[in-house]
């Protein structure tokens, strides 16, 4: 507990008691957290001293979630359940993630998340309000993101849910890229996010996107085997080929994952979808041959857009996505270049009332696909 207090509450290093520092170093050695502690020192040296996470007692969080009642459940991921809660002390609405695993490895990932999110601050990263490490309990308290995850808006939508329009999609893509740029280019040393996917892009009012969960995933490949295989399964489809084959992680692996997310945003398809027909299970494998022929670009637009997108903008967004998912990591752009391109695209507001609407062909929700989907699209008007 004292180690948590040390990182979470006090950033005045000179006032730390010597015994506390000793405890920090031995625990960090045990948990192999040295790179993070070095990063903490670097960031503090640079003056970005914003450690602001609070500690919570378990009881406070139980009260906030009405004892973790099912109707407060927001979702469940590989690390545990996420509940919506209201903090009694401040009345603030929060999202509380309860880690359901015990042991050293779970503890280590918890520490990584707390440290990372305590040190890294950006408008496109989710804000960690605090944490609880009472006994065996490990909970993380985040700002509540009212629109849920990008995944909730792209895939398996209930019929009454509003579809994301083109402008919202470009805004989300540009904001997520900015969050990644912060991790790659502003954090010192750079942070490889490693778990970029639609469920980890959370949305605030006006579809303002924030990356979440990068701390938990970042440094945690060992330990509980079930958990590791779950993670691998969970990120299957987003993982750069060289990372999947060699385990070697670079900033360009994140750029690849970003490209997959961007493709999902444009096409409305999932990174992996086994319900699709042969040759369409893997989004990148499906998209690669289409990238080679500009005339096929309009086939790639999400049918849910109902043709309401700018042709030139679609081409440009697809060009960015295709560069990001190149096989060769060196051929992929830097995230800073992706930010420049997507910020430009997000600034070009599309108005279906004054700009042309493309003809489109609504695909059936489930396979098998017997119709020739391209028939209607070939007739689509191409501006460019
Ligand atoms: N801060 C938050 N505000 C609102 N909803 C959230 C917040 N954090 C998570 N959620 C919701 O809880 C769900 C589960 O999140 P969680 O991060 O545990 O799992 P995941 O992202 O689906 O999978 P993984 O464990 O692989 O990251 C999310 O999909 C989202 O809908
Ligand atoms: Mg997540």
Automatic annotation (TrEMBL):
Basic residues biased stretches: 370-384
Catalytic function, reaction form: L-threonyl-[protein] + ATP = O-phospho-L-threonyl-[protein] + ADP + H(+); L-seryl-[protein] + ATP = O-phospho-L-seryl-[protein] + ADP + H(+)
Family matches, as InterPro entries: Kinase-like_dom_sf, Prot_kinase_dom, Protein_kinase_ATP_BS, Ser-Thr/Tyr_kinase_cat_dom, Ser/Thr_kinase_AS
Keyword field contains Glycoprotein: no
Top-rank lineage group of the source organism: Eukaryota
Keyword annotations from UniProtKB, A to Z: ATP-binding, Cell membrane, Kinase, Lipoprotein, Membrane, Nucleotide-binding, Phosphoprotein, Serine/threonine-protein kinase, Transferase
Enzyme Commission number: 2.7.11.1
Subcellular location: Cell membrane
SMART domains listed in its UniProt record: S_TKc
UniProt biased composition (Basic and acidic residues): 16-27
Molecular function terms from GO: ATP binding; protein serine/threonine kinase activity
Protein family membership: Belongs to the protein kinase superfamily. Ser/Thr protein kinase family.
Name of the protein in its database record: non-specific serine/threonine protein kinase
Organism: Cinnamomum micranthum f. kanehirae
């Amino acid at each position: 507990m004292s180690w948590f207090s040390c990182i979470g509450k006090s950033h005045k290093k000179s006032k730390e008691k010597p015994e506390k520092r000793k405890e920090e170093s031995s625990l960090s050695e045990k948990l192999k957290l040295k790179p993070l502690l070095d990063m903490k020192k670097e960031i503090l040296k640079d003056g970005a001293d914003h450690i602001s996470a609070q500690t919570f007692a378990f009881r406070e969080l139980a009260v906030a979630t009405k004892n973790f009642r099912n109707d407060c459940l927001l979702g469940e991921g590989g690390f545990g359940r996420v509940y919506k809660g209201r903090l009694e002390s401040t009345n603030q609405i929060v999202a509380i993630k309860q880690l359901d695993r015990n042991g050293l490895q779970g503890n280590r990932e918890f520490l990584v998340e707390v440290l990372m999110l305590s040190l890294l601050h950006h408008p496109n990263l989710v804000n960690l309000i605090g944490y609880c490490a009472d006994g065996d309990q490990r909970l993380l308290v985040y700002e509540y993101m009212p629109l849920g995850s990008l995944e909730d808006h792209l895939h398996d939508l209930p019929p009454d849910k509003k579809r994301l329009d083109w402008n919202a999609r470009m805004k989300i893509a540009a904001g997520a890229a900015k969050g990644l740029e912060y991790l790659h280019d502003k954090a010192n040393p750079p942070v490889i996010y490693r778990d970029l996917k639609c469920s980890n892009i959370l949305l605030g009012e006006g579809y303002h996107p924030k990356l979440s969960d990068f701390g938990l995933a970042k440094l945690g490949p060992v330990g509980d085997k079930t958990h590791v295989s779950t993670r691998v399964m969970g990120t299957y489809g987003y993982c750069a080929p060289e990372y999947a084959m060699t385990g070697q992680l670079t900033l360009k692996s994140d750029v690849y994952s970003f490209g997959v997310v961007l493709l999902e945003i444009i096409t409305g398809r999932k990174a992996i979808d086994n319900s699709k027909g042969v040759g369409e299970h893997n989004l990148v494998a499906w998209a690669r041959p289409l990238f080679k022929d500009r005339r096929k670009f309009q086939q790639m637009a999400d049918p849910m857009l109902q043709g309401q997108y700018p042709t030139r903008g679609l081409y440009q967004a697809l060009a960015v996505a295709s560069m990001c998912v190149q096989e060769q990591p060196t051929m992929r752009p830097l995230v800073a270049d992706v930010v420049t391109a997507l910020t430009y695209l997000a600034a070009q507001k599309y108005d279906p009332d004054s700009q042309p609407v493309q003809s489109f062909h609504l695909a059936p929700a489930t396979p098998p696909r017997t119709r020739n989907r391209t028939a209607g699209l070939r007739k689509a008007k191409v501006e460019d």
